[in-house]
């Protein structure tokens, strides 16, 4: 697994319960985290009694340890081998000031060990611990089962999902998105509020398209940077009948876009595509956007900044690329299927039959010869998580919907980037999208991560989230 940050571990204890439960839990949790290749930050057994947290002095020690590792801790796991000290846990998190997601786990009791010497009472202790976190205003996540042994497969899934929640919540709080060019005149649908985004930690860095195109036009085919990028494009996808001049145009644009992203430390970009690049420069920017999205630097069209933000959120949840798509067509008369489409900028992961082509619809107004760079390809059957984040400007809030379905191999004769999606209660979803003023763009990701996104966006970001799950 890629380096995903560390998690802090707090093992709760309460003095009138057997101490050996704490020692055993410590070994079991360390074993599990090692097996999952998760780096843990926790107190040594010498620092406090058995390395647990019970008294306020313990809380101070644990908080100091967490603060020293603030830059790497993306979440905290609270382990309750017994009832635990409800205040010690909350005080630790308060003093540490990490502001990261927290997962609370409690051990189950054995029916034949409910005597004074061996009972745990974590069932009750977990309720008390959560009550204190709630009083302190600390957000937390629960395991699927109220009490669960670390060796239970459901806890492994809870833990891995929790890491996804941490990646999404911590990633969105510091994301930087480039808005390249003005919103196309005909696309009121992609309006958004930079100020609402900023209040949520999301920075938007704007640049005029003339600067990008002007810098691209200063480059020549002989420039080393252009030659390198040209090779990268040729290595990325078959070029079909795309002429060399168009490939050079695309390579120059790609060099300038990459420079702009690096100068501004951007995580993602939203680019004005619909018709200015074609009319004033002479090619489509789709291939560059696809390469960026495949490299985990998501790029969306039509300056759809919140669409690009949605791509980034779904990518953080799954660890795989996202694609921005149109909710485009019905699929025959099947009420739970629809066609997802875009001219052609989806990441290569979605397109086993990828080819650099043109954008025929756009070509009808700007000349098809000015639309080279759009990709052609059909996405095969796979799992599907879909989602959309928006700013609801009149109400001053962030809102989102997310859900799961699947992509199918149903027949589809058309061009561009295309897929057929099967989504339970699709008609209800479309009613919801239309009633609540959501955009015609949605994001797809080949994963099952709606639960992770619901927890991260709803609980930790505090946004309004509607979940559509099968």
UniProtKB/TrEMBL annotation:
<keyword id="KW-0119">Carbohydrate metabolism</keyword>
<dbReference type="InterPro" id="IPR009015">
    <property type="entry name" value="Fucose_isomerase_N/cen_sf"/>
</dbReference>
<dbReference type="GO" id="GO:0006004">
    <property type="term" value="P:fucose metabolic process"/>
</dbReference>
<keyword id="KW-0413">Isomerase</keyword>
<feature type="domain" description="L-fucose isomerase C-terminal">
    <location>
        <begin position="340"/>
        <end position="466"/>
    </location>
</feature>
<dbReference type="InterPro" id="IPR015888">
    <property type="entry name" value="Fuc_isomerase_C"/>
</dbReference>
<protein>
    <submittedName>
        <fullName>Fucose isomerase</fullName>
    </submittedName>
</protein>
<dbReference type="GO" id="GO:0005737">
    <property type="term" value="C:cytoplasm"/>
</dbReference>
<dbReference type="GO" id="GO:0008736">
    <property type="term" value="F:L-fucose isomerase activity"/>
</dbReference>
<dbReference type="Pfam" id="PF02952">
    <property type="entry name" value="Fucose_iso_C"/>
</dbReference>
């Amino acid at each position: 697994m890629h380096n995903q940050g560390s998690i802090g571990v707090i093992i709760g204890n309460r003095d009138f319960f057997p101490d050996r439960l704490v020692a055993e839990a410590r070994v079991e949790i360390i074993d599990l985290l090692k097996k999952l290749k998760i780096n843990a930050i926790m107190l040594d057994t010498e620092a406090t009694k058995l390395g647990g947290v019970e008294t306020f002095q313990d809380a101070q020690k644990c908080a100091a340890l967490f603060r020293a590792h603030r830059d790497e801790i993306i979440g905290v796991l609270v382990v309750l081998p017994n009832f635990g000290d409800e205040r010690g846990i909350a005080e630790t998190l308060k003093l540490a000031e990490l502001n990261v997601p927290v997962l609370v786990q409690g051990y189950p009791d054995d029916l034949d060990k409910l005597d004074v010497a061996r009972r745990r009472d974590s069932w009750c202790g977990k309720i008390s611990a959560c009550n204190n976190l709630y009083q302190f205003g600390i957000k937390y996540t629960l395991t699927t089962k109220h009490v669960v042994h670390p060796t239970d497969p459901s806890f492994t899934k809870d833990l891995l999902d929790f890491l996804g929640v941490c990646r999404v919540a911590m990633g969105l709080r510091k994301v930087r998105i480039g808005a390249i060019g003005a919103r196309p005149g005909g696309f009121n649908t992609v309006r958004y509020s930079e100020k609402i985004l900023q209040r949520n930690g999301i920075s938007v860095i704007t640049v005029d398209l003339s600067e990008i195109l002007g810098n691209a036009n200063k480059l020549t085919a002989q420039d080393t940077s252009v030659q390198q990028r040209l090779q990268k494009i040729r290595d990325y996808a078959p070029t079909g009948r795309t002429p060399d001049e168009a490939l050079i145009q695309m390579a120059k644009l790609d060099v300038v876009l990459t420079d702009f992203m690096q100068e501004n430390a951007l995580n993602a970009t939203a680019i004005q595509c619909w018709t200015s690049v074609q009319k004033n420069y002479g090619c489509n920017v789709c291939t560059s956007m696809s390469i960026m999205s495949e490299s985990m630097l998501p790029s969306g069209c039509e300056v759809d900044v919140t669409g690009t933000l949605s791509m980034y959120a779904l990518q953080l949840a799954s660890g795989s690329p996202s694609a921005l798509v149109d909710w485009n067509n019905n699929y025959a008369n099947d009420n739970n299927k629809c066609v997802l489409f875009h001219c052609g900028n989806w990441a290569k992961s979605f397109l086993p039959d990828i080819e650099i082509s043109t954008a025929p619809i756009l070509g009808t107004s700007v000349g098809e010869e000015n639309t080279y760079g759009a990709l052609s390809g059909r996405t095969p059957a796979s799992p599907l998580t879909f989602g959309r984040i928006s700013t609801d400007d009149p109400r001053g809030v962030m809102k989102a919907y997310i859900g799961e379905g699947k992509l199918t191999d149903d027949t589809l004769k058309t061009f561009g980037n295309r897929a057929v999606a099967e989504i339970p209660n699709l008609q209800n979803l479309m009613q919801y999208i239309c009633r609540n003023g959501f955009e015609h763009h949605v994001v797809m990701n080949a994963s099952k991560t709606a639960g992770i996104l619901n927890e991260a966006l709803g609980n930790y970001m505090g946004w309004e989230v509607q979940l559509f799950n099968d």
